[in-house]
What does this fold into?
Amino acid sequence: MRKKVIAGNWKMNKDIHETVTLVNEIKERLNGLSNNKVDVIICPPFTSLVIASGLIKGSALKLGAQNMYYKDEGAYTGEISARMLKSIGCEYVILGHSERRQYFSETNELINLKVKQALLYNIIPIICVGETLEERESGVTKDIVATQIKGVLSGLTKAQIDKIIIAYEPVWAIGTGKNATPEQANEVHQFIRKLVAQLYSWDVAERLTIQYGGSVNPQNAYDLLSQSDIDGALVGGACLKAESFINIVGAATQIYN
Ligand code: 13P
It folds into this structure.
């Protein structure tokens, strides 16, 4: 069975003081879980990454950022590079989140450049794809997701596919409390895996981690994570409290029991 990967996307939440409290609470609760089958990642905002990096040392928690730019360095005011993220211990970076696509006009082409740059620095990109409600209702979910996948993975080698995570996050499920049903999500996950198999090979597709994101909470996590092709969760709102985040991790560990 593929390893489950639970990541918390803090989005634009938590100042540095709140970060210390939350990371310490998560660490404490994580200690009570036997979780060697589940990877747990926290993705705080940029301003909290350094302190979080120090706090998680010696624990099972891993660190991710929520975005980065694709250039190495230079006159790009306000941007952060992969090298900077690597230097503070980031092992993951969320790329192409629908909020980045929606509010900051990120395209598949730009996301593709960022993915390649992250890989250059051995940072695992968590690449987000997903359809809007309008797209789902007009029956084009798979076309949209296929276009996104082909765009963001363009030019990647088979070896590089082993170093990425895909997160399927239907836009209509994000922050709405209305998660995709386990069956709805699994259907798209299977579609993504088949597409990657066509583009690369079955063995690489079989190994690929595909997370689901969109209103994941402790109540729905087990059912979602029990599906054949759902290999983890990218959690928004429910990761801002240690109890709910760790309960989602707990649901993932139960799958192995
Ligand atoms: P919610 O869990 O708040 O719906 O957010 C999901 C998300 O966007 C994670 O990246």
